[in-house]
Each structure stands twice: as C-alpha cells, then as structure tokens.
C-alpha cells in the first residue's frame, strides 16, 4: 500500500476546476474525509509551490506529508490506497484497465482541446471548425460509452469508474460552453447515451456536492477567463 489510509487528506485546488473535481469525486466514492484548501486564481500559495515544484499547478493531494500531483494519477492513488473502501474505480481486469486509461487520455488530449478551441476562436470560421471538432469528439465518446458501459448507466458499468471521472469533470464547462455559444453538444438525437449518462452522473451522490452550478461557473468564466474554459492543470 502506498500510504496509510488513516492519515489526513488535503486537496489543493479550487471549486471551478474540472481537474480538482476528479480526486474529490474519487475520495467521495471511497468515503474519505478531506479538506479542500482553495487556491486563489492568479496566484500560487507557498504550499502549492512546495508540493508541486515542477508544474506548480493544481490539483495536489497531500496525504499525511506526501504530495501527489496530476489529477488522474491522484485518482489512481486513491483507488490503490483505499482499495477496500467503496467500489473499485479502475477495472480489475488488466485489459479493461488499459482501455479505461486510453479513453481518459483521449478525453484530455483530444476532447478538452476541442472544447477550448471554441472559446479561443478568433472569428466565426474558427469557431465553426472548433465546434465541428467538439461534435466529432462527442461522437467518438458516444461509441466508447456504448461499448464500455455494456448497457449499464456508466462507462464503469453499474458504478462511476475511471472514464466517468475523467469525462464527467468537464460537464459543467460543457454546459457553460453550450450556453455562452448557443450550441448543443449533449444532443439526445446525436449522442443519446452520453446525454442520459451526464444526467445520471450529475445526480450521483458522490458528484452532486462537487459539481458546480452552471450559472455560477459561467459568472466565474466571464470574470476570470472571458469566454474561455479554465487552463489545463
């Protein structure tokens, strides 16, 4: 075991960050008590700089006196340390686990940049191209959901799993992007599986307390990022 499950747990981050949501959901799944230490946007605390001296980014989980960085690495750590609590987040089958990691990487490397591309677009032509890329990514993820869910509610089948956490953390920002740009990405006629999945994901008890309200998130986006989603952390 990587560490003692009884040691104090702290998360360095901020409520609007999709990346900070990931370990918070994982800790909720495992029923682990933690303290969220809010970082002020635009500045970095001494604790953050000390805990993540390489990237200097949130989230960081401090377990006892051990800092763990990068959101999905933290999720894996939580699943390992509290293996006997809650349900397993990463599939026990090695092949299924590799598939879950593949799609989590796709979500961060392909889907999230397409979402940011909408906000970063400088004119109508760029925005149209970015929206098309996002819609295409949604189509690919719809196919992935149909295969990995095996007819159940989540990518992780009956319960929220690794891919669910990786993708679900973006739901708030997807809704903000839809509202601010007059588009529909969760389109039940084109991605019926993902549309129903998003509703079930947000309604889950492990998610409800950490999923930001769309209006509050949109006000944050306007104030801090303009129309842009938050930078990758």
TrEMBL record:
Record Gene3D superfamilies: 1.20.1050.10, Glutaredoxin
Transmembrane regions listed in the UniProt entry: none
Domain of life from the UniProt record: Eukaryota
Keyword Transferase: yes
GO molecular-function terms, A-Z: glutathione transferase activity
EC number, UniProt record: 2.5.1.18
InterPro entries found in the cross-reference section: Glutathione-S-Trfase_C-like, Glutathione-S-Trfase_C_sf, Glutathione_S-Trfase, Glutathione_S-Trfase_N, GST_C, GST_C_Tau, Omega/Tau-like, Thioredoxin-like_sf
A Pfam family the protein falls into: GST_N
Keyword terms: Transferase
An example Gene Ontology biological process: toxin catabolic process
Keyword Cell membrane: no
Record domain GST N-terminal: where: 7-86
Start and end residues of each GST C-terminal domain: 93-225
EC category: transferase
GO annotations of cellular component type: cytoplasm
Catalytic function, reaction form: RX + glutathione = an S-substituted glutathione + a halide anion + H(+)
Family membership: Belongs to the GST superfamily. Tau family.
Protein name according to UniProt: glutathione transferase
């Amino acid at each position: 075991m990587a560490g003692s499950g009884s040691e104090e747990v702290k998360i360095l981050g901020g409520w609007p960050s999709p990346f900070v949501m990931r370990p918070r959901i994982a800790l909720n799944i495992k029923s682990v008590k933690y303290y969220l230490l809010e970082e002020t946007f635009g500045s970095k605390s001494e604790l953050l700089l000390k805990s993540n001296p390489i990237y200097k980014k949130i989230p960081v989980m401090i377990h006892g006196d051990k800092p763990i960085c990068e959101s999905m690495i933290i999720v894996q750590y939580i699943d390992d340390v509290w293996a006997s609590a809650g349900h397993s987040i990463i599939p026990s089958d090695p092949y299924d686990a590799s598939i879950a990691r593949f799609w989590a990487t796709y979500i961060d490397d392909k889907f999230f940049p397409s979402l940011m591309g909408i906000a970063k677009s400088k004119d109508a032509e760029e925005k149209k191209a970015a929206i098309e890329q996002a819609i295409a990514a949604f189509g690919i993820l719809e196919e992935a959901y149909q295969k990995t869910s095996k007819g159940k509610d989540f990518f992780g089948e009956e319960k929220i799993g690794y891919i669910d956490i990786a993708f679900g953390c973006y739901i708030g920002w997807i809704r903000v992007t839809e509202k601010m740009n007059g588009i529909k990405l969760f389109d039940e006629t084109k991605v019926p599986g993902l549309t129903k999945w998003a509703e079930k994901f947000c309604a889950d008890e492990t998610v409800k307390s950490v999923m930001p309200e769309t209006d509050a998130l949109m006000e944050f986006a306007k104030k801090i990022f303009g129309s842009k989603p938050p930078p990758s952390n």
